[in-house]
Write a structure and sequence with these properties.
Elements: E1 11-16, H1 20-23, E2 29-34, E3 49-52, H2 54-70, H3 75-89, H4 95-98, H5 105-115, H6 123-127, H7 140-161
Length: 166
């Protein structure tokens, strides 16, 4: 707890252990603590990593699915969370990288996706803050999911800049 604000910085990450055949062939997966702000984890730390068997992974997945199914979230909300995760893991847009975007780049990118096909043809590219090749609109719903995830990234960035998460 810092300054009266609780802050979660590590999440669990499940992945195949590339070295399991050498040290734990019966447990080919590992569960690691991962810091989403720096996009790193240290699997060498004993407190930060645990190898799992296939049966343990299946039980973990079933539990996770049950928790997701019980959560009062709509398909749209889940899609936005998945898109934000995709942006971090596949587009390498970590929160640490987002912290360097202080000229409303995330908001402008969200506006570009949200207005694609709604306003005159060149408007989205006028608001797009990066190279035009990075603007990849698809259908209206997918564009709105991308826009919402970019807005979520900006809100998270503002929260970090203010000294904590809400």
């Amino acid at each position: 707890m810092t300054g009266g604000v609780y802050r979660q910085v590590e999440v669990l990450r499940l992945e195949r252990d590339p070295h399991a055949d050498m040290h734990a062939p019966e447990q080919p997966y590992r569960l690691t603590l991962w810091d989403p702000e720096t996009n790193v984890h240290d699997p060498e730390q004993p407190h930060g990593c645990r190898n799992l068997s296939g049966e343990e992974v299946r039980a973990l997945v079933v539990t996770g699915q049950r928790l997701l199914n019980e959560a009062p979230q709509t398909a749209a909300a889940l899609d936005v969370l998945r898109e934000r995760h995709r942006q971090i893991t596949e587009e390498e847009r970590s929160p640490l990288a987002d912290d360097g975007l202080t000229e409303n780049e995330l908001v402008r990118a969200a506006v570009a996706y949200a207005t694609e096909g709604v306003v005159f043809a060149h408007f989205p590219l006028l608001t797009w803050p990066w190279d035009a090749a990075g603007f990849k609109p698809t259908d209206k719903r997918r564009n709105l999911v991308k826009a919402a995830a970019l807005l979520m990234a900006e809100i998270e960035r503002l929260d970090r800049a203010a000294g904590g998460a809400r």
